[in-house]
């Protein structure tokens, strides 16, 4: 029996919405039989800024023991799902800083031919969820990765209307994540794991043939 496909869920979250989506993506990948690493990226904000927002401080304290992503985690993975809140319609600096550390792996071609996807949260209804995911996916194209967005490939995607990746509008913490959005995230995890397993099986078949 072949070993399970390996999925890294790598995200940044300040007050917890993106973290909750990351957990759902990881659940979905595990449901599909994947071995999953749930990983946060390092916090860059000063302690004073974090302390000024009670929700930020609370979440920051709650994830202290969660592993911090390293380039080695991406080398390990068959598939990577990135998560970020939006910052002016773009990727949060904490996740972008992590992406910028991957030049060594990129130069060796070790980020190529993996499956990638993403998810996002915003404070406002139209705060750049699509533009943030599209900006995030620029890195995937440079990696030579295989982008596997959820699209409209499952009924839940018609309910949430987020073909680029699961997304949530949290209204500064006033809007809880809906079960439909959580299921969209779980579906993305399952889809990414399934496609990654199919690709690996196909590569193995070519080698054996």
Describe the protein in words.
Belongs to the WrbA family. Pfam families: FMN_red (PF03358). It comes from Streptoalloteichus hindustanus. InterPro entries: Flavodoxin/NO_synth (IPR008254), Flavodoxin_CS (IPR001226), Flavoprotein-like_sf (IPR029039), Flavoprotein_WrbA-like (IPR010089), FMN_Rdtase-like_dom (IPR005025). This protein has a single domain (6-208), classed as Rossmann fold (3-Layer(aba) Sandwich). Helices cover 47% and strands 17% of the residues. It contains 9 helices and 7 strands. It has helices at residues 17-31, 47-51, 54-62, 71-76, 93-99, 103-107, 129-143, 155-160, 179-208, and strands at residues 6-11, 35-40, 79-87, 90-91, 115-122, 146-147, 167-169. The mean pLDDT is 95.
């Amino acid at each position: 029996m072949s070993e399970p496909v390996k999925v890294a869920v790598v995200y940044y979250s300040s007050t917890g919405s993106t973290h909750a989506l990351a957990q759902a993506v990881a659940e979905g990948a595990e449901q599909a039989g994947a071995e999953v690493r749930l990983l946060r990226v390092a916090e860059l904000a000063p302690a004073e800024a974090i302390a000024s927002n009670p929700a930020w401080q609370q979440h920051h304290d709650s994830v202290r023991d969660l592993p911090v992503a390293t380039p080695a985690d991406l080398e390990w993975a068959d598939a990577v799902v990135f998560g970020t809140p939006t910052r002016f319609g773009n990727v949060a600096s904490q996740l972008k800083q992590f992406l910028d550390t991957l030049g060594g792996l990129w130069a060796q071609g070790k980020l190529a031919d993996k499956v990638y996807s993403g998810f996002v949260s915003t404070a406002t209804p139209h705060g750049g969820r699509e533009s943030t995911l599209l900006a995030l996916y620029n890195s995937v194209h440079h990696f030579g990765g295989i982008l596997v967005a959820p699209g409209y490939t499952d009924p839940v995607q018609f309910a949430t209307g987020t073909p680029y990746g699961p997304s949530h509008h949290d209204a500064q913490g006033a809007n809880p994540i809906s079960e439909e959005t959580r299921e969209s995230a779980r579906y993305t995890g399952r889809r990414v794991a399934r496609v990654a397993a199919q690709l690996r099986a196909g590569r193995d078949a070519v080698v054996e043939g």
